[in-house]
Amino acid sequence: HEVGLLTGRRLPELERFIRVVRRDGVPETTEAGLVLRLDVASVPGGLELQPRLVYGEPPIAEVLPQGCIPLGGLEQLPARDRREEQLRIEQLQRELGMRLGGRRQLQGSEAARFVRDRLPRFTGSVVGDDVVERFSVRGGLTPSTSWSNGRLDLQFRLGDALVGAQRVLRAWQSGDDLVALPGGGYAPLPIEWIAQHGEAAELFLEGGGSGALPKHLTALAASFADEVPPELDGLVALLKGEGLGVEAPPDGLQATLRDYQQTGWSWLAAMHREELGCVLADDMGLGKTIQALTMLLANPDARPALVVAPRSVLKNWQNEAARFAPELRVGLLHGPNRGKRLRALRDGRLDVLVTTYAVMRLDIDALADVRFGSVILDEAQAIKNADSQTAKAARRLRAGQRIALTGTPVENHLGELWSLFEFLNPGFFGGRSRFQETLGGPAAAGDVRAVQALRRRVAPFVLRRLKGDVAAELPPRTDIVLRCPMTDAQKEGYERMRRGGLSGLESEDKRPRRMKVLEILTRLRQASCHAGLLPGGDAAAASGKLDVLCETLEEIIDEGHRALVFSQWTSLLDLVEPRLEDAGIGFLRLDGRTRNRAELVDRFQADDGPPVFLISLKAGGTGLNLTAADHVFHLDPWWNPAVEQQATDRAHRIGQERPVFAWKLVSEGTVEERIVALQERKRALAESVLEGQGVTALSDAELDALLDPLGA
User: Fold this and answer.
1) How far is residue 248 CA from its own chain's centroid?
2) Helix 671-690 vs helix 448-458: angle between axes, to the nearest 10 degrees?
3) Which of 152, 336, 418, 610 is the most buried if burial means most Cβ atoms within 10 Å?
4) What is the mean pLDDT of residues 488-495?
5) What whole-number distance in Å separates Cα of residue 41 and Cα of residue 180?
6) How many CA atoms within 13 Å lie on the side-chain side of 134?
7) Which stretches does DSSP call E strand in 177-243?
């Protein structure tokens, strides 16, 4: 090192002023050109880069941070040019972003981007061109599609090389702009094509690695296919909502169907022929049951059928089948001796087996052994929680087609839509976390593109008709928010409860904040209705809301009307009962303890039935036909407008001949007013996705805002 320093630096400096005589074998300083070069070597999956600054070619010395090191002995040493060395070091930093003496390893597309973007800027010498070539970026990819057994396969072509769709789309999904070619080298992603067709093309990522799309995604795939086989024209038209023919009612149907019901059962039959899961999402009361029965009657291969329904409507299925499709042999799988019913189904002695969600869970091992022609879930929101045992059991059922009947495909959040479609068409949205990341989460946050993409994805599989659109004979419905002033004592108690709750949020209670906020809101909602709902509350206390309820009931009853009164709290119904008795108003009551539901419904529906029916929201919000009432009262507004909608539809349904009035009782100056405003905001998102479904999951910020005093 010292010899190199002497001969390469000190002596040349000295020779500029005096003559230097070299003896004892000290080599002469030679003129050698300074070369900046980049040595490129191959490492598994990538490149190793080493910048070098050398004198001579081949090099006789190398400049390193610690000095100039001779290469190959001391016979020849360069005359160093420190100024030029510094310029080359700056050039290295400027052109490659590297420092002298360092090494860098780059993997995969990172190496290809370096070769494409940085290396062309380098004006030095590159050693290892053959290695660089393996990471060169070539021309553009073009899509190539083909069909096999009704499934679309997508690949991308570059010359003779073919790249699978999943490789290309995973690169795009990860934010990359290059994809590795099977024979070496890289190609830029077809960004413009993906931007146009990415929503549909991305479905290939959900195909389990096969590269081919399942049948239920054909319509989206057809949007970018080179051509569609003629035998798939009907399927594509069906999924695009085009050319659906209305079929003649089957022989044996003992009913005259309305036009929209004709369209509905024909659509179910067409989806059945293609073995596509679907949702008949008509408004409550438009006759989803008879449309499903008509499809079963017309299509023998849709049988045997399994119908899973809430216990409250089991008899309704049996009765409607006997009335409208008496040729169908219907059995109930409920209660003891269920094995006999299953044997009858297996032996071909039953066409339709009707059971409850609870029995389906209990008997899922036996039911999963049966290959049904179709499985129908009535009130299918029962499987909204994908992790519930009910949803897991439903997904185990085997059938040629799966159908969901529900007026509310989504009740609380868009994750419920994932659960529903995972039952109908497994793999429809891919994994749940990916759905939440790419569609559900952004849509719930108001991302317009995500909302539109989600709507386009589900639209071919959802048939939804609103009462106002298809049932011209149905009388109008009027929604009224009835503001109820609280008594002075109520106001004082409510404010104490609110302030105490807020201070409790800062307590040492270890429960999650969200849980504490929800508890406070529940107490405030109860205080808004009646102090007697609170722990230790006075059942005899006055309630402005119950005063308004009784005054309004007396008025409408005097005019010959009848009413349904809903509350989520049976304890509130307990407080309403004595008020009705004092006012001399006759009533019936239905809640979770009621066993004679059908008898109570018949009594209320009778011409001489009592004018008021008290109903708990959970027990009577679905499955009841109560058209004798033309007024519906909701005593305590709930986060979810879909739940209130279902309850109102007990009266506003086919068979109702009078205008229906839905009253929402809201205590002034309370959290209830904020809940009503929040419902409207959530409803706007719901309508954009599913035209009226209640997407009402509350964020932490929304919950906290509900605790603010009104006007804050």
Assistant:
1) 37
2) 60
3) 152
4) 91
5) 19
6) 14
7) 178-180, 186-188
Q: For residue 71, what are its two tokens?
A: 């290469």
Cα–Cα distance, 316 to 324 (Å, whole number): 12
Is the bond preceding 641 in cis, omega lying within 30 degrees of 0?
no
| pLDDT at residue 702, as a whole number | 62
Contact 608, 634 (CB under 8 A): no
Query: Which pLDDT tens digit goes with each residue over 127-150?
Result: 987 888 888 888 888 888 777 776
Q: Residue 148 has what DSSP assignment?
A: E
Q: What pLDDT score does 601 carry?
A: 92
> At which residue do the structure tokens 């129908």 appear?
376
Closest CA relative to residue 113, chosen from 185, 37, 192? 185
What are the angstrom distances between the C-alpha of 700 and each of 295, 675, 684?
A: 45, 14, 19
CB atoms within 10 A of CB 274: 17
To the nearest 10 degrees (0 to 180), the angle between helices 389-396 and 415-424 is 30
Q: What is the residue whose two structure tokens read 């009913």? A: 255
Which two three-digit tokens encode residue 103?
Answer: 């090494």
Supply 50's token pair.
């080493």
What's the angle, vertex CA 525, arms to CA 524 and CA 527, rounded to 5?
A: 60
- Cβ-based neighbours of 24, under 8 Å, separated by 6 or more: none
Separation between Cα atoms, residue 708 and residue 502, nearest integer Å: 9
Are 416 and 410 a contacting pair, CB within 8 Å?
Answer: yes
DSSP notation for 300-369? GGG-SEEEEE-GGGHHHHHHHHHHH-TTS-EEEE-SS-HHHHHHHHHTT--SEEEEEHHHHHHTHHHHTT
Angstrom distance (rounded) from CA 352 to CA 55? 90
Say what angle helices 314-324 and 288-298 make with each other, to 10 degrees. 50
Stated as kind and residue range, the H or E segment containing 197 is helix 191-201
For the cut 90, the answer to whether the pLDDT of residue 173 exceeds it is: no
Closest C-alpha among 107, 108, 120 to residue 181: 108
How far apart (Å, rounded) are the C-alpha atoms in residues 343 and 325?
A: 23
The rounded distance, in Å, linking the Cα atoms of 708 and 712 is: 6
Q: Position 579: which residue type?
A: R
Q: What is the DSSP letter of 9?
A: I
Q: In the structure, what pLDDT confidence band is assigned to residue 242 with cuts at 50, 70 and 90?
A: confident
**Helix segments in 29-102, DSSP class H:** 82-96
pLDDT score recorded for residue 2: 60
pLDDT in tens, 657-684: 888 999 999 998 898 888 887 776 666 5
Stronger pLDDT, 408 or 604, i.e. the higher one: 604
Q: Count other C-beta atoms under 10 Å from residue 622's C-beta.
A: 24
CA angle (399, 404, 406) in 5-degree steps: 165
**Residue 241 confidence (pLDDT) above 70:** yes
What is the H or E stretch that residue 43 is in? Answer: strand 34-43
Q: Which of 172-186, 194-208, 485-499 has the highest mean pLDDT?
A: 485-499
At residue 520, what is the residue type? I
pLDDT band for position 565 (cuts 50, 70, 90): very high
Cα gap 212→165, rounded to integer Å: 9
Q: Which residues contact 129 (CB under 8 A, 6 or more apart)?
A: 40
Give, rounded to a whole angstrom, the gap between the first and last alpha carbons of the chain: 78
Q: Tell me the average pLDDT of the chain.
A: 84
Q: Identify whether the C-beta of residue 454 lies closer than 8 Å to the C-beta of residue 689.
A: yes
Contacts of 103 (CB under 8 A, 6+ apart): 48, 49, 50
Integer Cα distance of 501 and 497 in angstroms? 6
Reading the block at residue 254, the tokens are 């003992």
Q: What is the pLDDT of residues 501-535, one digit of tens each?
A: 888 777 666 677 778 888 888 899 999 999 999 88
The span from the CA of 268 to the CA of 264, in Å, is 6
- The whole-model pTM stands at 0.64
